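Narrative of activities, Objective 1.

The group set out to show that a structural description can be obtained from nothing but a protein's sequence at a throughput compatible with the screening campaign. Below is one input-output pair from the validation batch, recorded exactly as produced.
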Amino acid sequence: MKKNYSLTTLLSLLILFLTLIVLIGCLNKQQSSKTENQKSQVKIGTMESASDFQSKCITIDPKVAYEIIKKNSGNKNFVIIDVRQPNEYNEGHIRNAILINYYSKNFKEEIAKLDRNKTYVIYCRSGSRSGRTLKLMKQLQFKRVYNIYGGIMNWKREKLPVVK
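Output recorded for this entry:
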């Protein structure tokens, strides 16, 4: 009798263990789905939505940024801002971009001095610094700011022009 009880206990523990493994697997899959959904919620403006850019602060595809820059050539209310460091800027930048070094002591003050009613395209090397700059500009209530997705790296990958 004692032998059957041990076998029953072992089988119960095995079933409990397998049930826990299945539950943990389901929870991991659910968490992975949440992460993927959060990633997909980062909306990137595409060519199809290029005419839709009115009063927004969003991240856009480099090709869309290029079209916006071309359409605003000569527009005094349009500004391109490179938030990289001077040495990065000197290696190549988008034509007419002004440099406001993200790592300078007075970066936030320099951004805060800008006219909130102008339209801005911002970028950095990979999109990280300009992404944080976009958030700052939203907080400061800028009307139209377009962050280039993937920064100058994606810009160059798309074979878009840079100057030195």
